[in-house]
Amino acid sequence: MEFLLRYGYIVLFGTVLAEQIGLPIPSAPVILAVGALAGVGKFSLWGALAVVLVAAVAGDATWYQLGRSRGAAVLRLLCRISLEPDSCVRTTRIRFEKLGSFALVIAKFVPGLSTAAPPMAGVTRMPLGNFLLADSAGSLVWGAAFLAAGYLFGEQLEHAAASAARWGGWFLAIASGLLALYIGWKYYRRRRFLHHLRGARVQPEAVKAMLDRSEPVFLIDVRSAAEVEETGKLRGAVWLDLQTLESAPPEIPRDRDVIVYCSCPNEASAARAVMLLRHRGITRVRPLQGGYEAWRDLGYPLDSAGPAAAR
User: Beta strand pairing status for 233-234 and 302-303?
Assistant: First the structure.
């Protein structure tokens, strides 16, 4: 507390910035503590809010610029450290496409979306002015909520901290054990999924050879509409999102090989589509290994970018 009193604004700026650039440093306790100290006249509440705003927007703007310059590769990098790396990119895109700029306003209150929303804004080419406006609004609401909680309930927070000091060891042990079990279960499910997937994937070279021999192949693109509009799709492919496949799948030919591809780690979205189609009795269906990026990097033919709705 003495350190916080002496270097409060610097500590506040540093922790908020560190969290927003992706370091595992929670800033909420520091914001609450500064709010409580503002309640007894040690800090300016408005000054603290300004510090939170500048630090949060600075960190988010860094990710926005990386997303704009490096594209979806930045999202995949972030998702590799998540508990659901295989579906993280698709889930983030779907959320962002549904919410638009409002995603930035609520992002800091939604686990997982806080770090992913700013680079997604860059990937989708959101205008810089719109990004700064929405991100500033979200940062203000987030910072004000925690500062106000500390300001209004500083005494109660002090009692809670004292209780945590008495029971913190047991609480930490139980919480750590539950977290370890959860991560272990997620890891086991992911390894089982990847093991099943390895035996089902088809190489891009094999698909290209089938097309060169004029064999009837049905290609399905299950990436997001924004990705298809931005990068195009494999020549002759049909775009179908996973929600359509889950709720009202169109007629898929059963007399030919069906190849499904995406642009997510381990072809997770394509594998999910394959399982959905197999449950509907379509057995000649496999995910494309490496997805869209592998096909593109080999220089194989693509349709030009355009509205996904055009199929």
Answer: antiparallel
